[in-house]
Amino acid sequence: MKITNIETFIVDAGWRPWTFVKVETDEGVTGWGECSDGGAPHGVVGTIEDLKPRLIGQDPRAFEARFWDMFRGVRQSPGGIGAKAIAGLDCAFIDIKARDLGISVAELFGGPIRDKVRVYWSHCGSSRVRHHEMIGVAPINSWDDITALGKEVASRGFTAFKTNIVLPGQGGTWFSGFDGKMGPNDEWAPNWLVGHIEKLIGTFRDAVGPDVDINLDLNFHFKPEACMRIARALEKFNMHWLEIDRYDPEALLQIKQSTSTRICTGENLYYMRDYIPYFELHAADVFMVDIPWNGFSQSKKIGDLAEVYQLNVAPHNYYSHMSSYVSAALCATLPNVRIMEIDIDDVPWKDDLTTGAPEIIDGYMTVPRGPGWGIELNEEVARAHAWDGAKMGYSKSMAPSRSF
To answer: pTM value?
Structure first.
């Protein structure tokens, strides 16, 4: 079997782009991968174009060999856009191999060891406060709206959710680590903001009760000093985790050792090489793994390595249904999964974009049975919703409601 063509799609997903790669072969077997990047989709697609000459004519089923062919091509630019391009292709190659064998990817990697995986409703409130009209739901204008949303989460059978620093009535979230519109806040949290976060989580906790797990994502918004103050303020709410992105494992360890609030990290790390310094320090309690950014073959290795260090992993999955199928397949091959991320509030064409949608029952997603991922891109819908390159992904943050 030989690769005959590689095609990419950058799809408009409302407030961010989703990126897909299609790999065709001379035997008529086609594979799909997702490698979505909110800030540089054309960089990812451009790298895939650069990798094509190394791949056309090669056997996609030898996905480990193809990984190293690709890695050698971008090894002087490790991680980042290069890794994401490789990831999408890696997923497509694995999809081809499993489809050719007539089995699921979970079976290809020795599973499934589970037939369902617990999921949490991600960006709960965050998407609504920014884009309620596009999603087709009521706006979040008050603390009562936060209460109502919490009750909705529980009534729909979810046992966990994740939110960001939602600013009710202001049409946005605190997004200082990514968006310059908020000005240079130096990754510092003023006292009023810590109080706001405490009220946000407290309102959610009162709404969902003591048994629903709550995650809060701080992203890259704050230096360790601010993270420590926030973590201590939230200890009374028994958080499932506080999510923090830091490129310094010792700084993250400092945060973890300062609080009883559990810490999660890892969504921005690539390959085992990046994870090892964090694993060795046990710098967090839970580690996220982004399959569309690492690829399936490398994500499996990261998950297995985490088990060696007695750590749980959780797929980072804020993308399309294709990514959810891929992430669920990973969960079906690992013994140390904490929970899986999934977005519920989304653009109206999300279900039409792929040939399947996740089956979620009582807060658990059924693991797809394949063949391959068990899902494909609807190319007609993808082309009808092509991403406008003039748009800026994740641009709906708000200026601080109070001055620094």
So the answer is: 0.96
For 400, phi then psi, to 5°, come to -55, 140
Q: Please choose, from the candidates 126, 154, 83, the residue with its C-alpha nearest in 3D space to the C-alpha of residue 299.
A: 83
266 with 249: CB under 8 angstroms? no
Q: What is the pLDDT of residue 404?
A: 35
Query: 166 pairs with which residues across the strands?
Result: 173
Distances from the Cα of 155 to the Cα of 91, 122, 323, 399, angstroms: 35, 16, 26, 33
Reading the block at residue 150, the tokens are 């919490």
Residue type, 364: Y
- pLDDT tens readout for residues 233-242: 999 999 999 9
Whether 34 and 11 have beta carbons less than 8 Å apart is answered as no
Question: Kindly report the CA angle at 311 between 262 and 372, in degrees rounded to 5?
Answer: 115
The encoded tokens of residue 269 equal: 């790390």
- What residue type is assigned to position 253 of the chain? L
pLDDT band at 403 (very low <50, low <70, confident <90, very high): very low
To which H or E segment does residue 3 belong? Answer: strand 3-12
Q: Is the pLDDT of residue 399 over 60?
A: no
The span from the CA of 58 to the CA of 68, in Å, is: 13
Dump pLDDT digits (tens) for 342-362: 999 999 999 999 999 999 999
Report cis status (omega within 30 of 0) of the bond before 371: yes
Is residue 386 within 8 Å of residue 11, measured between CB atoms?
Answer: yes
| Residue ranges of domains in the chain, CATH in brackets | 3-103 (3.30.390.10), 108-373 (3.20.20.120)
The Cβ of residue 210 has, within 10 Å, a number of other Cβ atoms equal to: 8
Query: How far from chain centre, in Å, is Cα 164?
Result: 14
Average pLDDT (284-301) is: 98
User: C-alpha angle with apex 399: 395 to 402, nearest 5 degrees?
Assistant: 160
Alpha carbon 190 to its chain's center: 28
Asked if residues 92 and 66 have their Cβ atoms less than 8 Å apart, the reply is: no
The CA distance from 307 to 304, in Å, is: 5
